[in-house]
Design goal:
By secondary structure, the chain is α+β, with helices and mostly antiparallel strands. The chain has 4 domains: 2-124, no CATH class; 136-168 and 176-233 and 357-475, Dna-directed Rna Polymerase Ii 140kd Polypeptide, Chain: B, Domain 6 (Beta Barrel); 235-353, RNA polymerase II, Rpb2 subunit, wall domain (OB fold (Dihydrolipoamide Acetyltransferase, E2P)), CATH 2.40.50; 536-587, RNA polymerase alpha subunit dimerisation domain (DCoH-like, Alpha-Beta Complex). It contains 13 helices and 34 strands. The strands form 10 sheets. Strands 12-26-13-24-23-30 form a 6-stranded mixed beta barrel. Strands 5, 6, 7, 8 and 9 form a 5-stranded mixed beta sheet that branches. Strands 10-14-22-21-16 form a 5-stranded antiparallel beta sheet, with no helix packed on it. It starts with a strand and ends in a 13-residue tail after the last helix.
C-alpha cells in the first residue's frame, strides 16, 4: 500500500499509486477537481503527495498527448478573435498549472520541434522562465547567466520617467531623466509592459576601444558634446517636511521665523530665504545650512516647578535646514494639514544633475561602469563618415564576462538606426544575427560591425578596425554627488567622543587594519599617528594606586580620589574609548591598575 499525504498530513493509502495519480490528473483536467490541486508520486519513498495550500509557486504549461500538444491552430485563431480566453484553455484541460513537486514527474519540452512521445508538457514560450525585467534584456540567451541577472538588477536602478504626475507628488529622493527614449533593440516584453510609457535610458553611439587607459577597470568615456546636448541629464527631487506637533500641557510647535531669544538661534544669514510665514519662497537657490522651514518648539522636560521659572521658559529652535553637502532650487511649496488638523508644510527641492566623472552607467547586459573621463569633441576618435561616438566602452569587459548579447545589440542597434525600424531581440526568439549582418552589408557598412576610425588628437588612422554601433544605455541612480564624502574635523558622539557615523551626519571615515597596511606600504606610516587618535584625551593618573585621578580646573591642582593630594600624578595620553573601558571594569568591581613607565 502507498501512503497518501494531503498538505503534509497523512490521509490514507492506495493500492495502485500510478493509476491513482493519473486518475486525479484526468479528473482535474475535466474540471471535476479544483485546478489548485497538484499531485506527485515519489517512487523512492513510495508515497503520494497532494498539495492544495497557499503560497506555492506554480506555472502554466501546455499538456502534450502522444507527442502532440493539445493547443492547436484552431485554439490560437479563436484566441486572436477573442472567442476564447486563457481561463477557457485551463478549463478545457489544454493548459495546466504545475508546482515544483508535480514537475518532478513531468518531462517538459522547450520547443515544439523537440517533442517526442515521452514528453508530457510543452513550454508556452521559453521566455516565461525569465522575470519581467530580465525579459527586457535583448538577446538574453547569448549572455552568461550571472550577467543576465546583473542586467536585470541594473535596469531596476536606472533613471527614467517613473510617473507622469511627478510634478504633483512628494516622493522621497527620486530622479527624472530629461529625455528618455525607447530602445531600438526591443523584446516582446517592451510592448506588453507598455515600456514606452516609462522609458529608462537613451540610444547612443558606442565604440569598443581603449582610450589612453581612462576606461580601464570597466570605466567608460563620454563625449562632452553629447553631455552639452543633454545626454543623461536628470533632475533630482527631495522633499522637506515639517509639521506643528502638539505636546502634553497644551504646548505646540510654531512654524515661523524664530526670535533671537530662542535657544539655539542660528545666524540671520541662515534665515534669509524665509518669508513672513517662516517658509521659503519657490525658486530660491539654497545650499547647505540654509533654513527652509523655520520652526520653534516649546522647552523640553517641563516639570511643575519649571513653569514658574522664567529662565527655562524660552522656546528652542527646531527648523528644517538643508543637509550637509546638499544644494538645490526650491521647486514647490505646499501648506496643508495633517490628520490631527495641525499645520503641515512640505517643500520640494530640485537639483539638476549633469553627468560627471564618477557617475554610473550601464548597458542592459550587466556591463556597468563609472565615467572615467569626459573628452572634448575634437579629441574624440571619429569614423570615416565623420561619426564620433557618445561613449567609448572598454573591450576588456567582454572576454571574461561572455556578454555576447552586448555585442549583438551594438550590431542590431546600428541596423535599426540605419534602416529606421525597431529590432526584435526577444530572448530565444530574436532576429537572427546572420540576417542583421546581411542587412548591415546591404546598407553599405561592413557586415561585422567594424569601421575604420581616426585618432581625434593626431588625425592618424587607427590600424585596428573599431567595432562601433548604437546601443541603449542607462544612467543609474548612483551619482557621485550623492556619495562624495570627506571630513577633517566635525561633530563627535557624546559617549565615545569619536566622530559620528555616516555621510549625512558629516561623519568620519573609518580606517581599518587593511587600510593601515596600504599606508605603511606606501611609506606614509606617520599618517597613522593622525588617523588613530580621533578620540585622543589627556587623563591624570595616580602613580601610587594606578587609578584615574581628578584634575581641578579652578585650583589648577590634581588629586587622587583614593590616595589624596600628596601623591605623584602624571598626565597620560590615551584613547577616550580606553578610558570608558576602565570605567566599565570599575563598575564590575574589577580594579584596573595602570602601571606607568617613563616614555624617555
Amino acid at each position: 500500500m502507498t501512503e497518501v499525504y494531503l498538505n503534509g498530513k497523512f490521509v490514507g493509502e492506495v493500492e495502485n499509486p500510478i493509476d491513482f495519480v493519473n486518475q486525479v490528473k484526468t479528473e482535474r483536467r475535466k474540471k471535476k477537481l479544483s485546478h489548485n490541486i497538484n499531485i506527485a508520486y515519489n517512487e523512492r519513498l513510495d508515497r503520494i503527495e497532494v498539495e492544495s495550500g497557499k503560497g506555492r509557486a506554480r506555472r502554466p504549461l501546455i499538456i502534450v498527448r502522444d507527442g502532440k500538444p493539445l493547443l492547436t491552430e484552431k485554439h490560437i485563431i479563436q484566441l486572436e478573435k477573442g472567442d476564447l480566453t486563457w481561463s477557457d484553455l485551463v478549463d478545457q484541460g489544454v493548459i495546466e498549472y504545475l508546482d515544483a513537486n508535480e514537475e518532478e514527474n513531468a518531462l517538459v519540452a522547450f520547443t515544439e520541434e523537440e517533442l517526442t512521445p515521452k514528453h508530457t508538457h510543452l513550454e508556452i514560450d521559453p521566455l516565461v522562465m525569465l522575470g519581467l525585467t530580465t525579459s527586457l534584456v535583448p538577446y538574453g540567451n547569448y549572455n552568461q547567466s550571472t550577467r543576465l541577472n546583473a542586467g536585470s538588477k541594473n535596469q531596476k536602478q536606472a533613471l527614467g520617467f517613473y510617473a507622469a504626475n511627478y510634478l504633483v507628488r512628494m516622493d522621497m529622493d527620486v530622479n527624472i531623466l530629461h529625455e528618455p527614449q525607447i530602445p531600438i533593440v526591443q523584446s516582446i516584453t517592451h510592448e506588453i509592459s507598455g515600456y514606452e510609457k516609462h522609458p529608462a535610458g537613451q540610444n547612443i553611439v558606442v565604440a569598443v576601444m581603449s582610450y589612453e587607459g581612462y576606461n580601464m577597470e570597466d570605466a567608460i568615456i563620454l563625449n562632452r558634446a553629447s553631455i552639452d546636448r543633454g545626454l543623461a541629464r536628470n533632475t533630482y527631487y527631495r522633499p522637506a517636511i515639517s509639521e506643528e506637533l502638539r505636546y502634553s500641557g497644551g504646548l505646540i510647535d510654531e512654524i515661523g521665523i524664530p526670535d533671537k531669544e530662542v535657544k539655539g538661534y542660528k545666524s540671520e544669514k541662515d534665515y534669509r530665504f524665509l518669508e513672513d510665514d517662516g517658509i521659503v519662497y519657490p525658486e530660491a537657490e539654497v545650499a547647505e545650512g540654509d533654513v527652509i522651514i523655520g520652526k520653534t518648539s516649546p522647552p523640553r522636560f517641563l516639570s511643575s516647578m519649571d513653569e514658574y521659572n522664567i529662565a527655562t521658559n524660552t522656546r528652542r529652535e527646531s527648523s528644517f535646514a538643508m543637509r550637509h553637502g546638499e544644494k538645490g532650487v526650491i521647486d514647490f511649496v505646499l501648506v496643508t494639514e495633517n490628520e490631527e488638523g495641525h499645520k503641515l508644510v512640505q517643500v520640494r527641492i530640485r537639483d539638476q544633475r549633469i553627468p560627471e566623472v564618477g557617475d554610473k552607467f550601464t548597458s542592459r547586459h550587466g556591463q556597468k561602469g563609472v565615467v572615467g573621463l569626459i573628452v572634448s569633441p575634437p579629441d574624440m576618435p571619429f569614423t570615416a563618415s565623420g561619426i564620433t561616438p557618445d561613449l567609448i566602452f572598454s573591450p576588456h569587459g567582454i572576454p571574461s564576462r561572455m556578454t555576447i548579447a552586448h555585442l549583438i545589440e551594438l550590431l542590431g542597434g546600428k541596423v535599426g538606426a540605419l534602416s529606421g525600424r525597431y529590432i526584435d531581440g526577444t530572448t530565444f526568439n530574436s532576429e537572427k544575427e546572420a540576417d542583421l549582418r546581411r542587412e548591415l552589408l546591404s546598407l553599405g557598412f561592413a557586415e561585422n560591425g567594424t569601421e575604420t576610425m581616426y585618432n581625434g588628437q593626431t588625425g592618424e588612422k587607427f590600424q585596428a578596425k573599431i567595432y562601433v554601433g548604437n546601443m541603449y544605455y542607462l544612467k543609474l541612480k548612483h551619482m557621485v554627488a550623492n556619495k562624495i564624502h570627506s571630513r577633517a574635523r566635525g561633530p563627535i558622539q557624546l559617549l565615545t567622543r569619536q566622530p559620528t557615523e555616516g555621510r549625512a551626519k558629516e561623519g568620519g571615515l573609518r580606517l581599518g587594519e587593511m587600510e593601515k597596511d596600504t599606508f605603511v606600504a606606501h611609506g606614509a606610516s606617520l599618517l597613522l599617528k593622525e588617523r588613530f587618535d580621533s578620540d585622543k584625551i589627556i587623563i591624570p593618573v595616580c602613580e601610587n594606586c594606578g587609578m584615574i585621578a581628578v584634575h581641578d580646573e579652578y585650583k589648577n591642582k590634581s588629586h587622587c580620589p583614593l590616595c589624596g593630594e600628596s601623591v605623584e600624578i602624571t598626565d597620560v595620553e590615551m584613547s577616550y574609548a580606553f578610558k570608558l573601558m576602565l570605567d566599565e571594569l570599575k563598575s564590575m568591581g574589577i580594579y584596573p591598575k595602570l602601571q606607568l613607565k617613563s616614555k624617555y
